[in-house]
Design a protein that fits this description.
By secondary structure, the protein is an alpha/beta fold. The protein has helices spanning 15-18, 31-39, 48-51, 59-67, 71-79, 85-91, 98-101, 113-126, 149-160, 177-180, 189-201, 218-223, 254-262, 289-300, 321-329, 396-400, 431-434, 439-460; strands at residues 11-12, 26-28, 141-145, 164-168, 205-207, 226-231, 237-238, 251-253, 281-285, 305-309, 333-335, 338-346, 349-363, 369-373, 379-382, 385-388, 392-393, 426-428. The structure holds flavin-adenine dinucleotide and iron/sulfur cluster.
Length: 461
């Protein structure tokens, strides 16, 4: 019997079993667990958890409905504010948001808000309840560029307000990072598809294989009768290591590696005809969620040794603690306080990576202690695949074709807190403004921009 106040753990696929498959690792709560966890909520009069949620879900209200055994009403409550609850329940860093603010966190474990959100969303899906429905049209068209979480939420909210919304997506599948970045074992694609179907059910049209800035420009969209444009093109341009040997065969950016596996199903070659090199000894450089996803994917593709090379200590790693924990359980070897120096090849193919040890110096601009090289500590790791997961930049295609759009010094779109850009009628949100951030922040920005677009178009009526 659990001590009162102790949080219930979710069921998980066994670490040994999951190494051979891409099935979901966390299995969430069953009904009994969800009700028991919901029972722990104090139903605070001034719920601090809500303040920690970037989209302002009425958290105590939906938890109360779960406690009463009514997941259908709970999901309705959540969807008043969040169109992608099954996604958020799985990948949002709740530990730094709603759960961090939960009053119970002061003395014991906070309520597992994310797992409860996931349970409510999954219950609805299992009962095939189509929650999306069209509303009366306002007779105005809005274009949304990109189909990641910022765009999906913005499009969904605008459709709920009666606008006729078309999403233009460059890739052949909608969902942005949710489909091409985050792997199946953390976020099953059928779940993303179900949430996209919900947005489509609200009347949103999605046109894939459509690159704005190439097939049509932003100005063309206005000429075609769209009265406002939301840009949610993300930060999909990979940064590279900038060291010797980066052009060798076997060196990937995390972006290319994960896209090949997720979207092009390269691990199922020749059934799907985009091959990927299945490394025997793989080194992933980086310490964020993207690095963890790459390392765990490489392991599932059959690598015998996967190293994670990170220049600071585990404490400074930006990855969610849960992801680092799962990676370790799966046998990923953490080589912290280590920096890559050179990639070594033979006949054009990668053979090894030379690294050097670091120590931590004074804090830098990011507030984290700066890695300082330990001269003479060079060592070599054998590797036939190296994956660089060291950050991304703004997706440049649309920006180059839209010179009227003001950018900040880092190359991201300049916009105010309402998502308003320097171009009349053009709004933006998500990673294309902030740089690589989180799903829920992108959703919050999409929501805010939808409200701004409504205000802008209502004033023009
Ligand atoms: C591997 C990985 C793991 C992550 N893990 C987590 C996690 O666990 N939790 C979390 O909260 N966040 C995570 N993130 C970050 C999160 O996914 C992003 O912050 C979020 O997806 C940003 O949403 P967005 O809508 O701004 O952009 P994106 O999701 O990047 O979507 C942008 C879309 O725009 C399209 N596009 C770009 N240019 C054009 C154009 N010119 N015309 C038409 N379409 C265009 C792109 O193809 C893409 O589909 C992760 C990111 C990655 C890469
Ligand atoms: S702060 Fe915690 S205990 Fe209070 S209502 Fe929110 S989830 Fe429940």
């Amino acid at each position: 019997m659990m001590a009162k106040g102790e949080r219930l753990s979710a069921r998980e696929q066994d670490a040994k079993e999951r190494m051979d498959n891409f099935d979901e690792v966390s299995l969430g709560y069953d009904e009994k667990q969800a009700r028991a966890e919901a029972e722990r909520c104090l139903q605070c009069k001034k719920p601090a958890c809500v303040g920690g949620c970037p989209v302002g879900i009425d958290i105590p209200a939906f938890i109360k409905l779960l406690k009463e055994g009514n997941p259908a009403a709970a999901i309705k409550k959540i969807k008043e504010k969040n169109s992608l609850p099954a996604v958020c329940g799985r990948v949002c860093p709740q530990e730094n948001q709603c759960e961090k603010e939960c009053i119970l966190a002061k003395k014991s474990d906070p309520i597992a808000i994310g797992l409860l959100e996931r349970f409510a969303a999954d219950s609805e899906r299992s009962q095939d309840v189509a929650a999306g429905s069209k509303v009366e049209s306002k007779g105005k068209k809005v274009a949304v560029v990109g189909s990641g979480p910022a765009s999906l939420v913005s499009a969904g909210d605008l459709a709920k307000l009666g606008y006729s919304v078309t999403i233009f997506e460059a890739l052949h599948k909608a969902g942005g990072v949710l489909v091409y970045g985050i792997p199946e074992f953390r976020l099953p694609k059928k779940i993303v598809e179900a949430e996209i179907d919900y947005v489509k059910g609200l009347g949103v049209e999605i046109r894939t294989n459509f690159v704005i800035g190439n097939t049509l420009t932003v100005d063309d969209l206005f000429e075609q009768g769209y009265e406002a444009v939301f840009i949610g093109t993300g930060a999909g341009l990979p940064h590279f290591l900038g060291i010797e040997g980066e052009n060798l065969n076997g060196v990937y950016s995390a972006n290319e590696f994960l896209t090949r596996v997720n979207l092009m199903k390269s691990h199922l070659f020749p059934e799907h005809d985009t091959p990927i090199k299945r490394g025997h000894k793989v080194v992933v450089v980086g310490g964020g969620n993207v690095a963890m996803d790459s390392a765990r994917t490489a392991k599932r593709l059959g690598a015998s040794e996967v190293y994670l090379v990170y220049r600071r200590t585990e404490e400074e790693m930006p990855a969610r603690a849960e992801e680092a924990h799962h990676a370790k359980e799966e046998g990923i070897i953490f080589k912290t306080l280590t920096l890559p120096r050179k990639l070594i090849g033979e006949s054009g193919w990668l053979k090894a990576i030379e690294c050097i040890e670091t120590t931590l110096g004074e804090p830098d601009a990011s507030g984290r202690r700066r890695p300082v090289i330990k001269e003479g500590s060079n060592f070599t790791l054998e590797a036939d695949v190296v994956i660089a997961a060291v950050g991304t930049g703004a997706n440049p295609l649309l920006l180059k074709a839209t010179p009227k759009l003001k950018l900040n010094p880092k190359g991201y779109i300049e916009a105010d807190e309402k998502g308003t850009t320097s171009m009349k009628g053009v709004f933006a949100g998500g990673d294309i403004i902030t740089g690589s951030a989180t799903v829920i922040l992108a959703m919050g920005a999409g929501k805010q921009a939808a409200a701004s677009i409504d205000e802008y178009l209502s004033a023009r009526a």
